[in-house]
Design brief:
mainly alpha; 2 strands; binds zinc ion; two-stranded antiparallel sheet; 128 residues
Amino acid sequence: MPLRGNDLYIYLVCKILYPLLSYISSISYSGCLWKGADEIVRRCYPVLLAFQVDYPEACMLTLVRQNHACPTCIARKFDFADLQTRRPERTVKDMTKIFYHARDLEINGDNKKAEEMLQNKGLVNIEV
Ligand SMILES: [Zn+2]
């Protein structure tokens, strides 16, 4: 089935944009030889200043359920009003553990429990 909408966006970011940004980041200090339009090869140091996204894009990129959780920390919707309490960061390592745990539950036939666990953590069930 062809990818559409948000799934296509997530796929493109993970498969094209993220590797490209990683490559730019890796050569930003050491430089790399590039041929310019004038055919002269120069050592270039590409710099990525920022990659900014809004809340819906951040939720798509982090596989967080929009309007249910924060994409950068573990705050849930009911925590949004409390701006003074600092929550632990949402890390790739922790979220990966949750996804693998949910996947194990699905493999064992407990789809409902897997979905509940992902919802409680504010995550969506999309494999990238
Ligand atoms: Zn947050």
